[in-house]
């Protein structure tokens, strides 16, 4: 009888240990708060340059927040380092996102990547100027 009791308790402990394993996979959802990284890649007519901005040296880092209801807020700063908030709406279709700020709509591509447990959002915007110059900008954000 004691053997059955010990076996039962041991089986319960083992099932608790393995049944409640922690999920270490990072959240790959767009929803949440993202802080600007200091690197932006800009490609003009196929020539790529990496621009390291000075957001690291500022007291206020640009942030972007995506809410689950399709709305969001950008927290930026002006030349005097004063905070500016811009609201927007967004919709997602695969890796394409439509951002609407006021009357301006832009179609961008986005990806969420994980490297060494750091979740990164990359927003890629492609614009063709009236003079035919093609500009691609990649903004990098890190999940806060």
Question: Could you explain the architecture of this structure?
Answer:
With 144 residues, this protein is mainly β. It has a single domain (30-143), classed as Lipocalin, CATH 2.40.128. 12% of the residues lie in helices and 56% in strands. An 8-stranded antiparallel beta barrel has the order 1-3-4-5-6-7-8-9. A hairpin with a 2-residue loop joins strand 7 and strand 8 (118-128). The longest helix has 18 residues, at 2-19. It is globular. Mean pLDDT is 76; it is low at 16-26.
Percentage of β-strand residues: over 45%
The level-1 CATH class: Mainly Beta
Gap from first CA to last CA: 54 Å
Largest sheet: 8 strands, antiparallel, barrel
Principal-axes geometry comes out as globular
Element string (H = helix, E = strand): HEEEEEEEEE
Estimated structural class: mainly beta
Low-confidence stretches: 16-26
What's the assembly state of these chains? Answer: single chain
Number of domains: 1
Give the C-alpha Rg. 23 Å
CATH topology title: Lipocalin
Task: Tell me the number of strands.
Answer: 9
What would the keywords be for this entry?
144 residues, mainly beta, Lipocalin, 56% strand, eight-stranded antiparallel β-barrel
Would you summarize the structure shown here?
With 144 residues, this protein is mainly beta. The chain is built from 1 helix and 9 strands, in the order αβββββββββ. An 8-stranded antiparallel beta barrel has the order 1-3-4-5-6-7-8-9.
């Amino acid at each position: 009888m004691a053997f059955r009791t010990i076996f039962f308790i041991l089986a319960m402990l083992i099932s608790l240990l393995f049944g409640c394993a922690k999920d270490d996979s990072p959240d790959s959802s767009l929803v949440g708060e993202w802080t600007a990284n200091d690197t932006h890649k800009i490609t003009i007519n196929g020539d790529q340059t990496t621009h390291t901005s000075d957001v690291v040296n500022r007291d206020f880092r640009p942030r972007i927040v995506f809410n689950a209801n399709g709305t969001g807020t950008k927290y930026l700063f002006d030349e005097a380092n004063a905070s500016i908030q811009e609201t927007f709406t967004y919709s997602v279709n695969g890796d394409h996102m439509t951002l609407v700020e006021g009357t301006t709509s832009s179609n961008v591509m986005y990806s969420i990547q994980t490297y060494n447990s750091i979740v990164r959002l990359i927003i890629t915007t492609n614009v063709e100027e009236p003079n035919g110059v093609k500009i691609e900008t990649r903004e990098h954000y890190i999940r806060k």
